[in-house]
Amino acid sequence: MSNTIDNLLHEARRFAPSEEFAANAVATAELYERAAADRLGFWADQSRDLLHWHTPFTRTLDWTNPPFAKWFDDGELNVAYNCLDRHVLAGNGDRVAIHWEGEPGDSRSITYAELTAEVKKAANLLTSLGIHAGDRVAIYLPMIPEAVIAMLAVARIGAVHSVVFGGFSAESLRSRIDDAEAKLVITADGGWRKGRVFPLKDAVDAALANGESTVEHVLVVKRGENEVAWTEGRDLWWQDEIALVDADHVAKAFPAENPLFILYTSGTTGKPKGILHTSGGYLTQAAFTHKNVFDLHPESDVYWCSADVGWITGHTYVVYGPLANGATQVLYEGTPETPHPGRWWEIIEKYKVSIFYTAPTAIRSFMKIGRQHPQKFDLSSLRVLGSVGEPINPEAWMWYRDVIGGGSTPIVDTWWQTETGAIMVSALPGVTTLKPGSAQVPLPGISIDILDEAGVPVGKDQGGLLVVTEPWPSMLRGIWGDPDRFIETYWSKFGDKYFAGDGARYDMDGEIWLMGRVDDVMNVSGHRLSTAEIESALVAHPLTAEAAVVGAADETTGQAVVAFVIIKQNQLETAESIDVAAELRKHVSQQIGAIARPRDIFIVTELPKTRSGKIMRRLLRDVAEGREVGDTTTLADTAVMSSIQAKLT
Ligand code: 6R9
After folding, report:
1. For residue 392, which of 74, 171, 212, 387 is within the disulfide window of CB 3.0 to 4.6 Å?
2. The AMP-binding enzyme C-terminal domain covers which part of the protein (predicted)?
3. 295 and 409 in contact (C-beta within 8 Å)?
4. Is the pTM of this model over 0.80?
């Protein structure tokens, strides 16, 4: 493997922080020293500094029953109070918490005082519907302020939310409702997406249609104004009910380890895992990372994370991190290209967004349609850019910095997972010298290593499996209802070390490069190749907009590299006139080595992606191996696979 990833690991570009940026930066190099000297003391300090504890904790970590961690467990706090009331009490009630932008162009700015008032009413409403601490509430909403209000109201009364992404089907919703035994579903009539209203209430009705369920009520926010069916006694309009309840609500303190939410994520088997997060540790790391990784100055910054609240990124970096830190943020309902391909950049100009956090897949699709769209807007307010969700190839990193960041903004590539709850590996702007394509270094207080299959740490310029070697505050506390699966999935491979499922590599400087999920690692003629690395090489070619690579079974080589490539719009003519597959094969050969040269290159117009933008390589592998395509229900657009297959035959 070591020869074949030279392409990535010999990335020579470096970007040191500017003096001006470093002088005003929130994070300093001293954080690393403090954390190295006393890791638990460091986290205890962060927690006391960043949060309000109703009852201060005296114990930082209880790790007597691994892998079941307890953080700050004799302390008590209220998560919603930390995100709301205390900012108002500190005199910041007039600060905007949310600049909400609806897809059709309607908008609403909500101050911390207003958001606090809304959440208090919603908390009273939940209580009036019989929701108590510990009860589960399913939330199935579009990206509207009520999504944030509902999550915080659930947290405020000590109940547990399970947010189900609005793009999931009725069937997925039902299995999540059943698994968590939710008593209440909060949904909307519909939400706006791609210029149309997509119905949500219909899906809830379909989900609850068959057989007894634990759901007692369905609260429906009016948003899409679309027709909905109504089950008397069960269904209630949010707006009507909110108008009836008391405006006052005193936040009660709950133990630090009180469950805060369950979030389902896919594993290697078919059944989604309900990842469980609790309160004090989660909020500590959410607030710490949001403040330090994004260099947040809450009095002056406008922050925007483009993730949906249905994903962990939306939980930690739309709801809990920014609000715990008293940030002003943008919340956008719709898609990036509606009604025009510059919509995101228009929003950045409108609200003078200074910190922007998105996914590589979005960046690459913007690269595909060209820089003329962002260039129509004034993006000069941006000063920090973030990336999350998959490895960002150096090509996309440079485009992001040059075209969106005006050639000067730091980019933080943040590695973490639903399970880790918050960012684990990332540069710190103002401190770290940036390296395009690398997630770089563990955050202060986070212990990461890369091990070989036998569990032995690898050295510089070597690859292996990423592990977390010490418990961390926002770690998952388990899989809902399935402690055995929790142990089996994450803690059986390397004992007391958390196995993340990602391949990684140290470069010559000892910095970390993520190489994709280990299930995406190919073995070609006994050589290990990473899908990410070949994709990166393909995307570096001037013809290529996007690429996905899979390892397909091959009689002679074990696995063979099969690539699916999208050609840039402005290169289509050139592509017509040459043998694209031969050209790209030669290019990969040059960039990485003959071993990485794809056996097959298929030119396609779209790639199969989940709603959160992850390429579903499993489906492409089915195509590459001539099998019937497997389960496509989690695709953002289920028609993509038929269009790809039509292209190939
Ligand atoms: C936050 C989130 C987790 C998986 C993770 C890894 C991949 C996330 C990454 C990254 C390389 C990054 N991943 N961030 N890979 N560089 N900066 O995405 O959570 O949806 O649970 O996915 O995403 O493979 O294991 P989740």
Report:
1. 387
2. 533-614
3. no
4. yes
